[in-house]
């Protein structure tokens, strides 16, 4: 293989936060699984048990995604991520004889581990700064020996570009958040903004591309993926459910004055859902309720004059 051929290949793009928190190999697998989950999100495929999945055999993972590793290496990296609770597995095939594994990512667990690593990194850095000697009259240079060093450039071939996902943690670059969510999530954010401003053009809503706008998109994505605050991956709301609740709350006389952000929507989603379902149930009961024995009493009464009614009662 000539060097000219190599120059035409795209290098692996490894997220440095993932690679330093876990390992380069684990970061590559996380990013590639995420890539296929995003493809399925955008096409609406393999949404089972409130999450998106992708499936493949280890042999196919190796040949189609990681040809630069051996099958044993692929098995080992996948096993490590499963043991850490980041890579979720199941067998969801229609045919029971088919034992091909399905894979998904626990993004909450990923965020949790990355935030814990980032906090520890800050603590280690602060301890290093405090322990460094400071000669009188000058600033001592910081000792770089114990700090994490930048990753070397990786030029290994791969059959497709791996996306930089950098999970939605508080320390992520929020100016890029909206680029990492499928169009449906951005569309829900736009719908909420439109309905809020339709109700009151003076309402304070973020402009597209700002960090505040990206926070709204992030909250909407979490509502879809893990549901209300404190929820987990089994409590996420489907796109259709979120859309219905947005439309309902922005028409309700009480909620349209209280749901003025994506964060507030996620915070109050359970209360609104309960109230919306109760209203729908009450309307259904009212519509299907059988007429009682007095339902025709008033119209029948008005067919007679008072004198006629008294005469009828007197001769009964």
Fold and architecture overview:
- The radius of gyration is 30 Å and the shape is elongated.
- The longest helix is centred in the middle third of the chain and has 25 residues, at 107-131.
- It has two domains: 3-128, Winged helix-like DNA-binding domain superfamily/Winged helix DNA-binding domain (Arc Repressor Mutant, subunit A, Orthogonal Bundle); 174-288, no CATH class.
- With 316 residues, the chain is mainly alpha-helical.
- The chain has helices spanning 3-7, 16-21, 24-43, 58-64, 71-83, 107-131, 183-199, 211-225, 239-249, 262-267, 269-288, 297-301, 306-314, and strands at residues 47-48, 51-52, 54-55, 87-90, 102-105.
- Helix 3 crosses helix 5.
- It is built from 13 helices and five strands.
- Strand 1 and strand 2 form a beta hairpin.
- The relative contact order is 0.09.
- A three-stranded antiparallel beta sheet has the order 3-5-4. Strands 1-2 form a two-stranded antiparallel sheet.
Task: Summarize the entry for a quick read.
With 316 residues, the protein is mostly helical. It contains 13 helices and five strands. The protein is 50% helix and 4% strand.
Indicate the topology.
Blueprint: H1 3-7, H2 16-21, H3 24-43, E1 47-48, E2 51-52, E3 54-55, H4 58-64, H5 71-83, E4 87-90, E5 102-105, H6 107-131, H7 183-199, H8 211-225, H9 239-249, H10 262-267, H11 269-288, H12 297-301, H13 306-314
Antiparallel strand pairs: 1-2, 3-5, 4-5
């Amino acid at each position: 293989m000539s060097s000219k051929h190599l120059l035409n290949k795209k290098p692996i793009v490894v997220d440095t936060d993932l690679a330093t928190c876990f390992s380069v190999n684990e970061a590559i697998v996380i990013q590639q699984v995420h890539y296929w989950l995003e493809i399925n999100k955008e096409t609406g495929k393999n949404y089972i048990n409130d999450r998106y999945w992708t499936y493949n055999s280890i042999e196919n993972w190796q040949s189609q995604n990681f040809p630069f590793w051996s099958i044993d290496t692929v098995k080992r990296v996948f096993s490590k991520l499963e043991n850490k609770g980041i890579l979720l597995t199941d067998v969801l095939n229609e045919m029971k004889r088919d034992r091909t594994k399905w894979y998904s990512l626990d993004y909450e667990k990923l965020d949790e581990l990355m935030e814990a690593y980032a906090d520890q990194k800050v603590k280690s850095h602060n301890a290093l700064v405090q322990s460094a000697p400071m000669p009188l009259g000058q600033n001592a240079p910081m000792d770089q020996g114990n700090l994490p060093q930048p990753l070397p450039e990786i030029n290994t071939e791969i059959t497709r570009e791996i996306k930089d996902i950098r999970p939605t943690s508080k320390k992520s670059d929020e100016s890029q958040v909206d680029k990492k969510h499928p169009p449906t999530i951005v569309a829900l954010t736009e719908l909420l903004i439109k309905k809020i401003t339709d109700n009151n053009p003076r309402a304070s809503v973020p402009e597209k591309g700002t960090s505040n706008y990206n926070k709204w998109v992030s909250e909407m994505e979490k509502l879809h993926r893990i549901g209300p605050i404190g929820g987990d991956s089994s409590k996420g709301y489907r796109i259709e459910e979120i859309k219905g609740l947005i439309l309902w709350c922005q028409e309700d006389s009480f909620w349209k004055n209280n749901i003025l952000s994506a964060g507030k929507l996620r915070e109050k989603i359970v209360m609104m859902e309960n109230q919306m379902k109760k209203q729908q149930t009450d309307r259904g009961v009212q519509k299907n309720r059988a007429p009682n024995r007095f339902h025709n009493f008033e119209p029948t009464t008005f067919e007679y004059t008072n004198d006629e009614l008294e005469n009828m009662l007197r001769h009964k």
